[in-house]
Amino acid sequence: MVLTPLPPTYVSQILNGEISVEVTSKKHIPLLLELGARRGWILRNHFILHYEGDAQLAPLLDALRQMGVAFLSVPHGWPPSAIFDLLREKGLLVGECTRVTFTENGPQVISHSDQ
Q1: Is 3 helix (H, G, I), strand (E, B) or coil?
Q2: C-alpha to C-alpha distance for 35 and 54, rounded to whole angstroms
């Protein structure tokens, strides 16, 4: 586990055919655009990738992981890190992802998945 003062670029949500990415490093913007991402309507650092089904989702998540993008991890619901794990269990992804958890009073905690 590593503590960092600034959050990494991270996947904040995967829902209804959309992957939401919060960008904190400008180096990720051209790479996201190459994947077909579009800027969000309100926040300039918010990008959205569209997908249909696990067969399209898995390669996008793999590309994001290879770019160094983290996946939000929270103890309830279906956060992006849990969806990554589920696709790995289905054999659609290989390798680990970096997870980010926002703490109440301090920096974000970044860790790698165990598998």
Answers
A1: strand
A2: 16
The predicted pLDDT at position 115 comes to 43
Torsion of CA 23, 27, 32, 38, to 10 degrees: 60
CB atoms under 10 Å from CB of 71, counted, come to: 24
* Domain residue ranges of the chain, discontinuous segments joined by +: 2-112
Q: What is the mean pLDDT for each group of 10 consecutive residues in the chain (115 residues)?
A: 67 96 92 94 88 97 95 89 96 92 69 58
9, burial (CB in 10 Å: exposed 0-12, middle 13-18, buried 19+) = buried
The dihedral over CA atoms of 76, 61, 7, 98, expressed in degrees to the nearest 10, equals 80
pLDDT at 65: 95
